[in-house]
């Protein structure tokens, strides 16, 4: 008998499990944002009905400013508290959501940075960052010229080969110039005065690519100053201390604000008019609280999404680094950097020597210039005596 009942029991169990799974899916779909939105949608008609059936009118000439100030301060306090609660709830929910944007971006970044740190690429990241920043700045300048009506090919030639003196020459006519790096002649065509005003902007020192330091892209939090586990502990403790101090001062300020409100509050007996006013105030305050919750929650959602995009940008830069390594970007060893610096310093010294004129040489040249004049003067004197 028990063996015959087993198939039926298993079918009932499967049905119960399916119902429970579908119920869990429905609960997951009922997220906080939807619940808050629905609550506001239900409360909004209530506000409309209350304001319709309770007779009141606007009399700006006879405003009770004390009552207005009291109501406004209470509503502001409710709004601030609800926004903070909404932001905290939204950030916690979005950050901890398994399979969400932030968790996926954080997982991708952690995997990427671990691969970098356990390879030779990590030590050359600062060189790559400098190289990539220069390349991106060049592209930014080209895009600026194209967006302002300059031909794409001409913009490429200008940013790649032209110097500011060449831009000045192009105002007067077309010409060719020998490029020392490539060893070929680069043509530049004449530009109009309007084009000159556009092109000269990209040679302004203020035309730069705004970026953070390269260590920003090596840390999920954006703070890459602490490179060691030991130094990171101090950095985190400093952050925690600042965070605690902020929370304590915020609590103290909020307590002082609330205590002043309650100290100044006076309770009145509810009459027929007072009941209507209380009903209206409670409805408005409830609406203020729910709208503040929704506003704070939505702010947190957007904030966490932006943080996820920042993490993705960092991971994208890591991918570009890997794909460019020893293909487009060729790192230099410490020895190569020092050798190039020594060579550059020697060239600068040689140029300085060539351009320097010693005082001894100047004096000798001046004496040589004066000697013939003295001889001529002596000859004149001898001739005059002879005569």
Task: Tell me about this structure.
This protein has 12 helices and 2 strands, in the order αααααααββααααα. It is an all-alpha fold and 387 residues long. Among the domains are: 123-218, no CATH class; 357-387. It has a two-stranded antiparallel ribbon. A hairpin with a 6-residue loop joins strand 1 (175-178) and strand 2. Helix 4 (101-117) packs parallel to helix 10.
What fraction, in percent, of the residue positions are helical? over 70%
Strand content: under 5%
Q: Determine the mean pLDDT.
A: 76
Shape: elongated
Distance between the termini: 163 Å
Please outline what is shown here.
With about 375 residues, the chain is mainly alpha-helical. The protein is built from twelve helices and two strands.
Features:
2 strands; mainly alpha; disordered N terminus; 12 helices; two-stranded antiparallel sheet; 387 residues; disordered C terminus
Map the helices and strands.
Blueprint: H1 2-29, H2 32-53, H3 65-95, H4 101-117, H5 125-147, H6 152-161, H7 164-170, E1 175-178, E2 185-188, H8 193-199, H9 229-264, H10 272-324, H11 334-354, H12 359-386
Antiparallel strand pairs: 1-2
Helix pairs in contact: 2-10, 3-10, 4-10, 5-6
């Amino acid at each position: 008998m028990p063996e015959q009942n087993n198939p039926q029991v298993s079918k009932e169990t499967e049905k119960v499990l399916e119902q429970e799974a579908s119920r869990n899916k429905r609960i997951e779909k009922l997220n906080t944002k939807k619940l808050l939105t629905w609550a506001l949608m239900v409360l909004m008609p209530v506000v409309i009905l209350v304001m319709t059936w309770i007779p009141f009118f606007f009399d700006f000439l006879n405003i009770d400013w004390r009552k207005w100030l009291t109501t406004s301060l209470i509503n502001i306090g409710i709004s601030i508290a609800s926004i903070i609660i909404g932001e905290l709830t939204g950030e916690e929910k979005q950050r901890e959501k398994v399979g969400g944007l932030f968790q996926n971006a954080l997982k991708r970044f952690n995997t990427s940075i671990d691969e970098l740190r356990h390879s030779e690429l990590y030590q050359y990241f600062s060189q790559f960052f400098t190289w990539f920043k220069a390349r991106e700045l060049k592209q930014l300048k080209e895009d600026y010229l194209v967006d302002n009506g300059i031909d794409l090919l001409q913009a490429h030639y200008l940013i790649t080969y032209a110097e500011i003196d060449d831009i000045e020459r192009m105002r007067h006519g077309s010409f060719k110039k020998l490029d020392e790096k490539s060893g070929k002649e680069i043509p530049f065509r004449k530009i109009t005065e309007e084009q000159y005003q556009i092109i000269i902007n990209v040679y302004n020192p203020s035309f730069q690519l705004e970026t953070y330091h390269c260590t920003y892209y090596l840390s999920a939090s954006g703070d890459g100053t602490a490179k060691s586990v030991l130094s990171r502990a101090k950095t985190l403790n400093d952050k925690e201390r600042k965070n605690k101090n902020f929370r304590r001062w915020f609590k103290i300020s909020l307590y002082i604000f609330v205590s002043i409100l309650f100290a100044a509050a006076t309770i009145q007996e509810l009459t027929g008019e007072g009941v209507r006013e209380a009903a209206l105030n409670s409805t408005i305050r409830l609406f203020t609280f729910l709208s503040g919750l929704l506003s704070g929650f939505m702010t947190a959602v957007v904030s966490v999404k932006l943080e996820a995009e920042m993490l993705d940008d960092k991971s994208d830069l890591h991918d570009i680094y890997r794909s460019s390594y020893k293909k487009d970007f060729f790192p230099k060893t410490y020895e190569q950097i020092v050798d190039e610096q020594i060579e550059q310093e020697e060239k600068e010294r040689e140029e300085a020597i060539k351009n320097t004129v010693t005082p001894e040489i100047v004096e000798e040249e001046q004496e040589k210039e004066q000697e013939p004049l003295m001889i001529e003067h002596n000859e004149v004197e001898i001739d005059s005596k002879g005569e």
